Structures are given as C-alpha cells and as structure tokens.
Amino acid sequence: MRPTTRCVALITLIVAANAQSVEELKGESVESASTSTGSSQEEEPKEAWMRAPSGGVAVRSGEDALLTCVVLGAKGKPVLWRRASDRQLLTAGGVRVTRDDRVRVLHDDSEDPLQGPGIAKGGDVWALVIKSVKASDAGLYMCELNTEPPVRSFHRLTVISRGLTPPENTNVTDSYSANLPTLSPLALAHNYTDCCIAANVTKACLGFCSIQTILEGTGQDPETCQPDFPSIVKCMADGRNHVPCCVQERVPDICQDVCRGEFTPVTDNIKTHYSCAAYMEKTLACIVEGIELLPSPPEDVEVETLNEKQLNVSWNPPIENTDTVTEYIVNVTALRSFDAHLIDPSESSIKNMSVKMSQPVTHRIPANKTFLVLNDLLPFTMYEITVTSYNVHGSSLPSYALRSLTLTPGKMKTTKVSPAPKLPDVRSCCVNAGVNHFGCVDKLCDPTKTFEIGVTDLMICAPWAGTTFGCLVNGMDHSPCCRARGLPESCLPLCSGNVTNLDFNHFKCLRYMSSYTNCLLQGYGVLPGPPTRLHLTNIDTDYAVVHWSQPAALPDTVQYYNLHYKAVAAADDYRVLEKIHSPFILEDLESNSDYEIYVEAVNEHGVGDASPRLIFRTQSQALEEEEEQSNYYNVTACCERVAVAGVCMPLCSYDAKMSDLRALAPLCAQEFHKLLRCGAGGRNHEACCARRGVPANCRGVCAGAYTGGINTCVPYIGNIVQCFEEGTGLLPGPPREVHAIVTTTGDKATGLLDWSAPEDGANATSYVVHWQRVGNNSQPYYYNTLQLDNQINTTDSMANIENLEVNATYHLFVVAVNEHGTSLPSSMLLINITSNTQEQSVSGIPSPPHSLSVSSHSATWLTLTWQPPQFSHPDEKISYTLYYKSPTQLGQGNVTMINTTVPGHTLEKLTPNTQYVCWVKAHAAAGDSLPSETLLAWTDPAYPAYVEPPTVNPVNLVVEGSSMTILCIAMGTPTPTISLYISGHLIRQVETRHMVTVIHNVTRDMDQISCYADNGYGTPMQASRKINISHVPTIQASGITMAAAGDSVILECRVEALPKPTIAFWRDPNGRTPVIDGPNYTIQLLSDPEEQTKYTMRLIIKKIADTDEGDYFCHAENAFGKTLRPVSVRLRPSTPHHNVTECCAQMNVSSACIDACSFHLDMDNIMDRPECMNDFDKLMKCAADGSDHRSCCASWGVPRNCLELCRGGTVARSCALQHARRALACFRDSGARLPGPPRSLKAHAAPTPHAVLLSWEPPAKNPQTVYLYRVFWRAYGAKVPEKLDTSETSVVLTGLQDDVRYECVVKAANEAGTSSLSQSIMFTTAGQETGAAAAPVAAGGAATAVGVAVACLLVAAILAAAALYYRHRKNLRLKAQGGVAFENPSYLREPAPIPDATIINGSVPNGNANGGNGVINGNGVSMSTAWRQETLQNPSTATQREVDPTLYEELKLGQDGAGFKRLKP
Question: Whole-angstrom Cα distance, residue 1095 to residue 1060?
C-alpha cells in the first residue's frame, strides 16, 4: 500500500472509532438529504450521508492542518471542499481548484475494506490538507456532496499563534495582555500586495507592501513612494487597531498614526518633519502581531432614520477573525443640533447658529447581535456613528463613519413604500403584432430596457421598428417630453410611435435612450412627480440643511431621493448625492459662495421629474476667523515686538516651511532664541514633548530655552512645533506685571504679590507661587529649574507670603496652571529684606542670562556666547550689556562695556596670553536683570605664522582645462592670513589656518604655486611648489616646402606636450598609411634643451621623388589626447629650357652665328667668331629667356656694372668678355625655374577720376609659379619711379594728374626669383597712348643715378650690413620659409609701409592699388606695403609683418635674401 493510502486509512480508523450515532449527526454540523433511520452498519446505504468529527481542529500557525470528511453512499458523485465564509470552491474530487497551492486533497480510491463501523472502504474519506496555515485560514470549511439537494458537513479550523494557548471562553475585552505572544514567521510574512494593487499603488512601490520586504530592504527610494504611503499604510494596518500595542511599546502619540493605518505625508510644512525612525521596528512588530490576533472592522454598516428620536444601526460581522469577536462597540457622536421650528422656510434665518456637541456615547453590543436601535436622541440633530469589533486581544479600527439626521418633531419616517403602478404590457403588444424575434421582443418591447438598445439591435429589429416603437408609446405622444429633454427632431418620431422605417439617422438617437426611457415611464404615469417645497435652513459657512416635501404624484411609491448641487461660479457638472431623505445636511461647501440645487424622487421604475432649482449663498467665514483670532495667540505679532529680523520672519509661524528653515538657518542663527521664545509663547510644553518622543536633551527647547546644541534637535523640529501649536489652545499664558510689596514688622516681614492674568490662550484656573531663600553659598537661579523649595497655590491673581526673615534675600516667581499644564514664569522677583526698610516695592525683572562660555578664541580675540533669560515674557524685547576687563587692570574705570541685542559677541584687539573677566546683564522694559555668572577667559599665546608647502590634488596629475584643489595649511596664533599665489598672481587671501581653493580651467602656465602666511608676529613665511600640468599635445607645422626632384628635404613640426608624446608621420589624416623609418626616410624627435615640454619632430626625405610629393601629417599623442597637423612638400616644375634658336631667329641673328643658338647658347662658337660679337647682345637676351638672373651672377662675383648682362641687357664689351660664361652658367642653372616677363601690358581709362587701370597677361614661362607682380611707373622724364606689388593681373593707379604722360613696366616673381621687365608702355589718365614709345626703364641709366648717390656709402654699408646679416641670418632663410625676393636695382628703395588697406570690388579706394595693398598719392610719393609677407598657398592673404630691406641688402642686387624678401617680425 502506498504511503498516502496508509495515511488516509489511519485517519479513517481514527474518525470511525470516534464516530457518533446517526441522530447526533442531525445537528448544525450536518445537513442530510433524507431522514433515513437505517443502520450505520449497512454496507450500501440507500441515501448518502456524512459524518463530521467531534469538535474542530486547532493547529499552530505555520503548521499543516488536516480536515477529514467521511462520505457514505457517494456512488461516484464528486466531493467538494469549500470555504464557508465566502463559499469559495477549493477542491472538486481529487483536483485542486483554488490558486492557493497550499491546498490539496488526500483520498484513497482503492476498494479494500477498512476496519471500523459504518466504513465500507478507504474511498469514503476525503481529507482537506492546508499546508503552513496562517491566521486568515481560520474559520468554517464545508465538505459538500454534489447531490440535489446537496449533502454538507461543516468543519471548524482554529489557528493558534505560536506561544499562545487557545483562548478561553471569557467576556474580558481588555486590550493587550502583559505577556505578548511571540511573532510567528508567518506573521512576519504579512503580505498585503493585493490590497495595494486595489488601491492603485505604483508598481515600483509594491516592495513596501510586505513586512518581510520592508525589514529586508525594498531597494526603492522611500521619497519616490511618498504619494503612495497613505494607501500602503492603510493596507498594512488592515483595519485593525494597533494603537494599544504601540502605546505599550512606548511609541509616542505623534508616531502612532501608522498604528491606526494612517500616514502623514512629509511636505514642506515644518510640522510634518518629525522623527519616528527609532520606533518603526516596534510599530511593525505591533502590526504583524495585530494582523494575527485582532478582528477586522464590521462590514456593511448602515444607519436608518426611524423618527425624531431613533436611529437604526446595522452591520455584518468582520471578515477576519470573525469567530474571535466578543463584542461590538457602537460610538455615537452628536455633531450639530438645529432648531426644529426652522423647518418652515418663512422662519429660516441665516444668522441662526447650530449648537455643536462633541461628547461621544458608546454602546456595547454582544457578538451575536448585529444591529442597534438608538433611542432618546435629539430631534433634528446630525449624528456620526461608527462600529468597532472587539476580541480578547484588542479591537479593529472603527468602521467608516456614517452621518444621519434625526427627523423633526411630529414626523415619522415612512416605513412602507407602496408599489408603483404597473407598466403597460408592451411585450404582449409586440407579440400580438407579429414580432417573432426574441431579442427584439426582449429589448425593444420592454420600456425598462430601452436604454440598453444598441446599433446592432436597431439593425436586426428594423423590420419591426414601426410595431415595436408603436407599442412602446402605448397610444400616447411623448414628443413634448422628449423635446424638453433635448432629443433632436430626427428622434421625435420614436417618441410619437410614427416610425415607418429605421435608417442610419436614427443611430444618433441611441445616446438619448435614457431620456427616451424616462419620457416613456413618465407618460405611463408610473414615475413620481417632482418634490415640492424645496427650501433651506441653517445656512452656515460650510453647510446648509435642505428640506423638501413629497411629490404630489405617487408620493407613496418613492423609495429615496437624489440631490444635485453645484457651485454657480464653477463650470463643473452637478454633483449627485443618491439615496437620501429630507431633511439632509449638505456639507463641505465653500464659504461666501453661491450654490444651485434640485432634488429628484426615485421609485422602482426610475427617476421622476426634478424639483425647481434653488440658489443660495453660504455665510462668510471672515467674521468667524476674526473672532477666533481675537482669542488666539499671535506668534507673528510676538516676533514683531521682539524685533526679529525681517528676513527671518518666514520662520515665525507654526506653518513655516522646511525649505525656508534650511535656507535661512545661516542668516538667522542669532535670531533663533527669539523665534523659540515666541514659539513657546511663555508656555511650558515639556510634557507634550515627552509624550511625542522628543529626547530629554531637547526638551529645554520645548520651554523656549535656546541651547547651543539645538542642531541635534532639528530631527524633532516637527514634534516640537506641533506641541507649540497645540499648547497655544490648551496651556495658559504667563502671568504679567508681577510685583510685590514687602512690609517689615520687627524681625519678620510679609510680602504681598500681585500680577495680571494671562492675556492670550486658555484661561488659567490657578497659580503657583514659588519662593526660596537665597544664601551666600547658593545661586539665586538655576537654569531650567522651575521648582523652588516653597510653593503656594491660589486661584486669585495675588498671594500673601508671611514669616519672611529680615536681613535675608528671597527669590520668587509665579506660574499659571490649568488642567492641561503650566505656563513659564514671565519674570522673577529678588527681594532683599533689611531691618531698616519698613516697606518696599519690588517689580519683576528678567532672570539673568546664563551659560556664559567661550565658543572660540585666539591670541587677540574671544568669542563669548550666553543663553537668554529663562524667566522673561516671550514678547519682551531684550538687550544685553557685556562687561569685561583684565584683572591686571585695577579700578572700575577699566571695565569695558559692550551693548548688543544678540546673545553673543566677539571681543577683539585683545592682548595675547592674557586673562579677562567677563559677565553679562539683560535689559528689558521691566528692568535690568542681575549679572550672569562670571567667566574667566584667557587669550592664546602669540606664535609666528608657519606655513606648509601647498598640497595639490590630484597629485602629479593636473590636466590642462580640468580643476585642481590647493590646500594651504598655516599655523600660528593669532590666526594667520593665508595668501595663495599662482605663477606670481594673487588668487585668494583668507584669515584662516586651512584654506582650500579649487581652481577651474587650469592652464599650463599655472605651474608655480605658493602659500604665504602672516599673522603680524614674526617674519611672514612662504612655501612654494612647482607642478607639472599635463596637457594634450599641440603642434605647429612648417607649411609647404618646395624642392626639386632628387633633393634632400626636411619636414619639421614643433610639438608641446606633457607627458612626452609618441609621434608618427602619416600620409593620410586617418593614419592608415604611416611613414616607415627606412632607407629613404628618417624620423626624429628632438627635445628642446631649455623647455622640457617642447619637442621637434622631424622627417628627413633623403632623396625626394615624385611619389614623395604631397601632404604629410604630423601626429603626436599622449595619455590625454592626440593632435594632427599637416605639412606639405611640392616639387618644382622641371620643364626644359626654351629653344634659343627660335629666339635668335626672331631677333634677326646673322646666319653666320645662328648655329651658336641651340637649347643652350654655345659660348665657344661666339668667342671663336669675331663676326658674332655684333650679335652678342641679341644672343645673351635670348639665352636669358626673359628672366632676371642677377642674383645668381652677383653670388658668383659678377660686378654691379656688369649685372645687366645676366638678364639679357646691353653691357660694355669688357663685361661681356669677362663674365659671359658665368652668366650663361646661371642661365642653365636657374633658367627653368624663373618666370618669364608679363605679357600684353595695357592701360585703360578708370571709372574714377585721376586714375588709370593697368592690365597684363601672365608670363609664357612658368605662369603657374608666379605669385607676385611688381609694377613700376613714373612721369615721363622723371628719374625716380613709383612701384607697388600685387598678386592680380590688373591694378588701378590713383592720384594721377590728367595732363601728365606716364611710362610703366611690370615684372613677375616666383619662389626662385624674378623675371625681366616687360615691354614698357606710355599712358595718361585717358588710357594708353598708341604709337608713343616709352622711355626705356633701363638698368644702365638707373644704375648710374643710383651709383652716384650711394658710392660714398658703399664701404661702410658693406661692413655694417655684414654684421646685421649675421644677426638676422635665422630670419633670412628664405627657402625654408617658402619666401621669394626680387628687387629692381634700377630704382631706389621705397619709403616705409603703411597698414593694410581695404580692397573693395577689385579696386583700392582712396588710392589703394588692387591686390597690391599700395597707395600712391598725388605727388608721386609711394605708400606701398610691398614688403608685406604673402603665403604661397593663398597669395591674397596677408600674414606676418615684413621689414624693409637694409641698404646692404639693396646693394646686394637681388642676391638670396634681398629684394622682394619676406622677413620674420
């Protein structure tokens, strides 16, 4: 046999052994299908029956429960297990139906008979197993056989808490016993997620819907779930009253809202910021315990008005722990009682005030009773009723509160509603007319269902539309009613019954079917008429009593009424209050507002017509609030009287904002003592603070005593402020104007004390006078001590103290008392009785300041603080006088006095290492206080400043552009002044010992950091540190380098980086084609010996070829980034020399010498033939090819007077014979690279006066390399020409004279040198002169003029220029800079340049030349900027400043570095 079968068999034997007779089974636990008296020994009973075990099953929580059901005669019918409370099906046969996987069925289907009376086989036993039971599983379970009628047996399951014995049968309703039961693991697993979901708790906050999850940590920020906490806490409490447990666990009342299932959300209001964290664990323990033990609230509480003195209250038992309920408590509270005679509207008065009652009455109802009739109530009074469930462990929370109004005298509630008239038999009308579709008959022929008609119904029933709607109208025309209710014209045929066919136009009538139905019912005469005599009485600020009478039509059929109301000013719809009766209290209204109301009567058929509308206005609340405020303590007025700073006034309110407190705390620290005094209002709130969980060290604040440790009390600020506000309405204010008259008689004295009663707050019922004799060894006042040795209680505002001793001093004060607590003393009396005084009058004065102490100190200053007087009126303005002196200074005149309004002051300019004596007095309108205690304070010794080296964070990793934190620490007394310098600049200066400075956006020059400290004693000290600032590499590239094929080329980039970068040269910007260090390439990284962060990266191309031409990219990278910059190399054009033979033919060289002309002039052929000497000048001009080679010739020593030979000009025969070979060598070396002369020079009339437009064409030779043209012009016959430079092929010359002829030439320049001069032209401002020959701008004539002028300076100029040239040799490297120089030796050097001019539309305004940046004035003086540097890539862009050539460079006549030279600044 299987183990399960053995278990079932054993259970069956136990049940059978304890089985009772059949007669015993006919009680409440068994329902039998027959009354068979057959013997239980029959093997096959004729009727099915069940046997239940004697008594219920009791198990401990967390254990498994087993409920057995013995079924005889089942005959194959299934056995069902149900929960009796809600009849939920748990199992059917052997199958589990419920989702609860803890439930299953044990059943043996074997046919083996078992021993025992009345048991045929093991299959007669059906056992319900519930694993790990919990408290909610307790209750009745039903075993049911599916027969007709069913056979049932009931089984009771009791779940006992661990550590708790089954409860005894007792009527004790005491709350929690002293011995609390131990919490079970199941109780800790209290999960109320389903309730949270039903309450629409956010999904992310469902982690708070389980006690176990809360204890283990939800992983969710509680602040984000604040809006859901009210619902979560309500679900957690589950309707049980956990407050008694929380009280027993000493949870403060302010923290008991969670125990009641309530939650106070934390807002910006200061009163919501209170601390309950220390009690949360105890609160949760009480909740999980209460869930297991306490009953839930009663269900379905209803209140019915019977007459003017009776209300009927009914309810259903609670759902949870129903069987443990011992009694119900019905709480009845009368809220408002109204004058019964005001039911007549003619007697209604808006001034009538209701009588408010607040004493609740409780009624105890036994557990077996679920209703209560309340008798002897007041007529026309509103009552609030709640019902609470109780058991031996405690109670539930009260049910939801219901409010009901008793009737007016003489009126009885109608106890019976007459049936309404019957509806016409529309269904029979339709059937008789031939409507045979069931759905159409059911909906379109039932006037109570017409509002359910849909589009599908109209489409299906369209063939019978005329019949169905004709039967519905019942022979009447309901169109007027339909029209009044807003039905459109197209729908009115439905109301008259004249429907021939239905189409889509009738579909829009479906939205009006409710109104249509109501019109039908109204036409049938089955609905009640409108209520009559609608009126209001007792109109107040927030409520009004509404009265109405029964309708004239069918009043006895009315079941209840619906009240509709809305605010007239608002555009909202009417709000509806259903199922009410007259009179009714309409509540929650706004004061001084207009409302519109009407009432409808409802019977079994529907809603009747509405009553007429009624508009009324509620009373204004301003008067009531003014009356309340007149007797209310005004904390704001108190703050104004004590002169609280205006910026701090937002904190002077019981509804202050926490955000304001955080923002204003630094500004209002000195005002806190005033705020606390006004907040306390002269009342002693310590008892309330103790009740609300404020720790003992913070309770002085509850009495208005400011302490230095108030910051530790900030978590309890909400607790304290709530006590302040609560106390203003409960506690008495302080007595005022306390004074005494002392009379001496012999050796005894009598004191008569008199005072004024408190002006605000609750009235004082009595007073207590405290007094004590003060001896020489006792203090007259003890801080926070409100008890003296002797007290007198009195109800008057005076007291007589007798038997006072003469020659003694007494300390007295008075406090007000009522049943809620006491006030604080408003002043103290210090009476000094002497034998010489017969009678003296003493007035109350503030108690002395106290707790005088040194809060901070140095060598030259002391900061003193003290606490305000404990005994003073809260709105009394108090000032202080601080006295101090050094004991070494004798005499009263050496005492220094300082007046202040705040309880603290800093004494400055003191002597180091000196003792000072200090005390304080308080001053008020009532008088001056006694001195405070005396304080001896020492200033610190003076020590010179000492500063430590600055600390920089991050250490050794400061990155350019980021931030760094610098810490300067200095020692010394008094406190030194620390100055922070960065790279010599003062950044910050503060008097402190520790200065932390954050520097943002660090630059690389901030590498020197110094901390400087000085305190006026000794020598100032400075400590410095140099740091390395890491930064991304920066690169400066050299631009474009020109080279000839086969040359060795060096490409350089200057790099600045820290740490040291890694470098590479790439052929593309993406780094996919690196340059590899190899036979033809050498890559170097050279460090700058002077600056460690600078490097030179160099690429050496040893023999450049066509494949090496193009762009290269310098790449540098370190840990902080990478940088890329381009450099380029270009090959010079290698076009062959021109054909000299062709030029010779054009120049008409004689045939005898023509063979000397080839691609290169053959000098040997010329020298051997004297006949060729006549053509020598022509041959040299052809060989020069229009280029200016003078620079090359001058470098090889050709004298100045022979240099014209080097550009094809005419020279003396001696020059030709001596230097022709050198000139031809220069022609061969540089002829291919130099440009030819410009062509087609022309002059045109300019659009502006006194100007001319010059234009030309680029040279035929090397035009693509030309980047600059120089234009020379002069008045015809003048010796000194003007010149300007341009990159364009045209220029406008301005400032010319109209009646003067001018001559002009142009030359071209490229990187290698210059061309020869173009053909000259003659022009005037009208344009070029045709046929006029210009005077040649020849080298010879010009050279002669220049030579005479400078001959005497030649020797000195050469010596001076040599030194200057050596000094500027680095700046004169023309080729490395890509620069070009050329100079016409025929002309003198021009004057100094002027700044750039603006070029507009290709011309130069105000005398500027187009593209040349030159200006020519009318008197012929050049203002050119010809020496301005131009870049090779973009000749039109001006860059670095240029310098005029020196005289020596001018005399070098075009040598490398002279002429059109670009110089570095």
Answer: 9
